[in-house]
UniProtKB/TrEMBL annotation:
Transmembrane segments: 20-44, 453-486
Protein name from the UniProt record: Scavenger receptor class B member 1-like isoform X2
GO CC annotation terms, alphabetical: cytoplasm; plasma membrane
Localisation: Cell membrane
Region of interest called Disordered, as start-end residue ranges on this chain: 554-579
Membership in a protein family: Belongs to the CD36 family.
Keywords noted in UniProt: Cell membrane, Glycoprotein, Membrane, Transmembrane, Transmembrane helix
Compositional bias per record (Low complexity), positions renumbered to this chain: 560-571
Primary residence: membrane
GO MF assignments: scavenger receptor activity
Gene that this sequence comes from: LOC117649189
Length: 579
């Protein structure tokens, strides 16, 4: 009977301890897996791998689609410099007085057409910038507004011929008088921007078509003339930081208009490689990194520096502006000396882009002569430079390089030379004459792009970091729990000294019984297992085992005192182990 009780107790404990061991093993496996996943995420940085994959341009790629056809609302705002004292100025009574009229607003649909992927990690495309008139944003101004504006054709033609021979100048002056060309004329805003008829332009187009290849002259029309242009950009395949940046423009990494010191390589003035056309800047921008922006109408790549941070469209971005000495004439920044055309430097704040505008004496600066030489500002009435209104800035998301806000502000001027020997234009000698100023702007991303970028650039990085630490800490915690369970397991044979002494005495007294148990153990375990299963099935296993246990361990009347004591001791030990 004692043997049967021992087997019942042993089997119950065995089942209970086996369940605990299985639970501990499962937790240990889960902990190891979690720790491994956390370590892999920490070492491989899956977010950056995902971003690099998306930022590399390829046909049908998400970032490529945004670059190819940006779904942003990009607007061109134009202000025209209307002359308010034409008669007084031409009579020599007053200095020129102007007033900027506008804005005249156009939607610019900037796209990259006919994209071809090259084998060297670049792609070639044709940039297009069609303009759509938006009257509702033009604040009451109409393209049919009549203004008094400079006659660009006459002033340009006179400036080009001013250095010609005496006989040539004489012939030109006769032509000017016969055509009655005047330096300040009335025309509509649209004519000035997109083309007005001029006898001089008509003659130039007829007799010098290689120089004047257009029948009408319009300033915005010439600024947005991209016919025959193509650009080659990096896909990011070799370096994801450069995806979307310019490799070559019209087949060259430089602009041919600027002087090159040696060979055909780019210089500070002519280089356009690694510049952005504004659709996407460098990825992974460092806080002190200088960026570069290229626009054909500016005839150069403009260096930009970070001046702070700002939040736009729900994301933090770096605020960039053009370098303070970007339009220096070489007086401060010696590298800008190469912008001095034929050795002649314009006043500070102006860049001579004559060679980019068909030989017309065009100079690029900032609106209202912002950051220009005070002498230029004081020569004309009506210009009021203001940093807040007239400084260019970009707000760029630093990881993706995507612009969150854009405001590119420029002014187109005429930098005229000595016209004292030319008919009708003598009063304009050595004058910097403002023509128009523009702002190419984007206030915010479209709502669908905002949602995507917030998920990619704000939420996903946080989720990745949180998951990494959850796996690491969770895995370590589960492993720790398993270690504690292994060392503090109630199934371990930790019994007191008295129990061990009684157990040894009992085993020594019942050696023969133990041998019999070992021989009969397999059969007895099978019998007991079947009985135990039947009891569990009826929901009475634990109660009946305890009843059998107590009845079998009850002392017989015939036993001596010593035997009773040993039996009682064994019962106490078994109850402690079983319960």
């Amino acid at each position: 009977m004692n043997l049967l009780a021992f087997i019942v107790m042993f089997r119950s404990d065995l089942l209970r301890c086996t369940g605990i061991a299985q639970s501990v093993l499962i937790l240990l496996i889960v902990g190891l897996v979690g720790l491994s996943v956390g370590l892999v995420m920490m070492l491989t940085d899956p977010y950056n791998r995902l971003f690099e994959w998306k930022a590399t341009f390829g046909s049908g790629g998400e970032m490529f689609n945004l670059w190819e056809k940006p779904p942003v609302e990009l607007y061109l705002r134009v202000w025209l410099w209307n002359v308010t004292n034409r008669e007084e100025f031409l009579a020599g009574k007053e200095k020129l007085r102007v007033h900027d009229v506008g804005p005249y607003v156009y939607r610019e649909r900037f796209t990259h057409e006919k994209v071809v992927f090259n084998e060297n990690g670049t792609m070639t495309s044709v940039p297009t910038h069609p303009l759509i008139w938006v009257p509702e944003l033009s604040e009451g101004h109409s393209e049919n507004d009549t203004l008094i504006l400079p006659n660009i054709a006459l002033l340009s033609f006179s400036n080009v011929m001013a250095d010609a021979s005496v006989f040539t100048r004489l012939a030109v002056n006769v032509l000017i008088r016969q055509t009655d060309s005047q330096p300040l004329v009335e025309m509509t805003a649209r004519e000035f921007m997109f083309g007005y008829e001029s006898p001089l332009v008509t003659l130039g187009n007829k007799f010098m078509p290689s120089w004047i290849m257009f029948e009408k002259l319009g300033l915005i029309d010439r600024m947005y003339d991209f016919a025959g242009d193509f650009e080659t950009d990096f896909t990011g395949e070799t370096d994801v930081k450069n995806s979307g940046l310019i490799d070559k423009y019209n087949g060259r990494p430089y602009l041919p208009h600027w002087r090159r010191e040696e060979g055909d390589g780019p210089t500070t003035c002519s280089n356009v490689r690694f510049a952005s056309d504004g659709t996407k800047f460098n990825s992974y921008i460092e806080p002190n990194q200088t960026l570069s922006f290229f626009r054909k109408s500016m005839c150069r790549a403009m260096p930009m520096v970070r001046v702070g941070e700002a939040k736009r469209s729900g994301m933090m971005g770096y605020k960039y502006t053009f370098k303070s000495d970007a339009l220096d004439n070489g007086k401060v920044n010696k590298d800008n000396k190469c912008f001095c055309r034929q050795g002649h430097c314009l006043p500070e704040g102006l860049i001579d882009v004559t060679d980019c505008y068909y030989g017309f004496p065009i100079a690029v600066g900032y609106p209202h002569f912002y950051k220009a030489d005070p002498a230029v500002i004081n020569a004309i009435e009506g210009v009021y430079p203001d940093e807040r209104k007239h400084e260019t800035h970009f707000i760029i998301e630093p990881v993706s390089g995507m612009p969150l806000e854009v405001a590119v502000r420029n002014q187109i001027n005429m930098a005229l030379g000595d016209l004292s020997n030319m008919a009708h234009v003598t009063k304009f000698s050595h004058m910097v004459l403002p023509l128009l100023h523009t702002e190419i702007g984007m206030k915010e991303l479209p709502s669908n792009m905002q949602v995507k970028f917030i998920i990619y650039m704000v939420i996903l990085p946080v989720v990745t970091v949180v998951l990494t630490w959850v796996f690491l800490v969770g895995g370590l915690a589960l492993i720790g729990v398993c270690l504690v369970a292994a060392f503090c397991n109630p199934c371990r044979p930790d019994v007191d000294v008295e129990t061990r002494r009684n157990s040894r005495a009992w085993l020594q007294q019942d050696t023969d019984v133990n041998k019999a148990v070992r021989k009969q153990m397999p059969e007895l375990l099978i019998v007991e297992a079947e009985r135990h299963a039947a009891q569990l099935k009826h929901g009475m296993a634990r109660e009946r085992e305890m009843q059998v246990y107590r009845s079998l361990l009850a002392p017989d009347d015939g036993n001596d005192v010593s035997g009773s004591s040993n039996a009682s001791s064994r019962r106490t030990s078994f109850e402690q182990a079983y319960c």
